[in-house]
Amino acid sequence: MYQLAGKRILLGVTGGIAAYKSAVLLRLLRNHGADVRVVMTHGAMEFVTPLTFQALSGKPVHTELLDLEAESAMGHIELARWADLVLIAPTSANVMAKIANGVADDLLSTLCLATDVPLMLAPAMNQQMWLNSVTQENLEKLKNRGLGILGPAEGEQACGENGPGRMLEAEEIALLTAKSFETNILTGSRVLVTAGPTREAIDPVRYISNRSSGKMGYAVALAAMEAGAQVSLVSGPVNLSEPERINVTKVNSAVEMHSAVMQQICNADIFISAAAVADYSLESIARQKIKKSDDSLQLKLKKNPDILSDVSAMQNAPFSVGFAAETENLEANAQSKLHAKKLDMIAANQVGDEQGFDADTNALTVYWKTGQKQLQQAPKTRLARNLINLIADQYNAKNTNKTH
Fold this sequence. Notes:
- By secondary structure, this protein is of the alpha/beta class.
- It has 2 domains: 8-180, 3-Layer(aba) Sandwich (Rossmann fold), CATH 3.40.50.1950; 190-402, CoaB-like (Rossmann fold, 3-Layer(aba) Sandwich).
- Helices cover 34% and strands 25% of the residues.
- An 8-stranded mixed beta sheet has the order 12-11-8-13-16-17-18-19, with helices on both faces. Strands 2-1-3-4-5 form a 5-stranded parallel beta sheet, sandwiched between helices.
- A hairpin with a 5-residue loop joins strand 6 and strand 7.
- Helix 1 packs parallel to helix 2 (50-57), helix 3 (75-82) crosses helix 5 (107-114) and helix 9 packs across helix 13 (380-402).
- The longest helix is centred in the C-terminal third of the chain and has 23 residues, at 380-402.
- The model has no long low-confidence stretch (mean pLDDT 91).
C-alpha cells in the first residue's frame, strides 16, 4: 500500500495512443491522496479530449502557453510554482527531445524549464523510435540531469510491432511516483514532532488559542516519514486528517502537550517543535460559564511549561529543532532563541499580514550554530521536505562527529 496524501502532481500528457492509460493513472493518483492538475499537448488532444481529464480531476485542463485567465497570462509559472513533482505520461519522443535540448515552444515544455521540482518521464513510442541513436542520446542527457525515467516496457505495440517502447502500466507508474518521495535519509531514526495550536480553557465554553492550523507541523511529520524515520506526532486541535503510518497523540492544552512529549521523548532521536504552544494559561479555570456583567473582565494568567527548553536541557537530549514565528526582528529573535534554548536548529518565519498561519504556502530561514539557509516561498508540503533535508544533513553530521 502506498500513499500520496497532500502531494501536488502535475500530470503532463503528450501525443500517443498510450494517452488513454493516463486517464487511469490520474484516477489512481487521486485515489491515493494526490492533488493532480493536467497539462496536455496539442498532440495528446488528438487521442483523448481535455474533457476526460477535467471530469476525472475535477479541475480545468491546461493546454495553452499564454493563458489569458492565468495571473499575468503566465500559466506555466503558476503551475511550476504549484507542483511538487512533474510527471509526463506518456512522454513522446518529440517531448523527450524538447526537454533534453531545452526547447520551450508550448506550455508543457516551457513549464519543464520553469520548474525546480523533480521531473519524471514515462516514455511511450514505437520500438524503432526508442532504439534510434538520437533518442538514446536524449535519454542519456535526461538521466545525467537526474530526471526519473519510468520504463519503457517491452511487448506488442499499437503499430503491430513488438519490442521496447510501451508505456508502463498506470499502477506501476503510480507506485514509482509514490516511491520517488521516499528519500531514506533518516532511515532508522525516531522523530517526534509537535504541531498545531493549544487551547487554554477560560471556562467550560471558552478558551485562549492562536491561529495555527497545524499544516506545517503535519507536513514536517509526513516528510520525516517519507525520509525513512519512525515518526510520532503530538497534535493540538486541528482540522486535518491523521496521516497514515504516523503515531498520533491528540492533546488540547500546553500542559497536556508537555506531558505527552515528555512521556515519548526518551524514544526520540530528533525532536521537531512545530506547534504554536500557548505561553500562558489561566491561573484558575471557571467551573461554570462566565456571565457577561461588567464592561471589562480581568483574567489572571500563569506561565506554561516550556516544552522545547525542557527537552533540549535533558542530559541525553535528542537533536532539537525549534520554530520561531515572528512579526518583527526575525533573525535577531530566532538567533536568540537558538542559543538561549541550546537548540541544534531553528526554523524562523514571518507571521502576520496573512503570512504563515492558515496559509498553504510559507517561507523559512533556518539557522544552526555554524550556518543558515533561506527556504523560499513554497507550498508547505515542499517546504517541509526541504527542511527535513537540512535537518538530516545536520543530524547525520553531528552523529558522525560523535563517532570520531
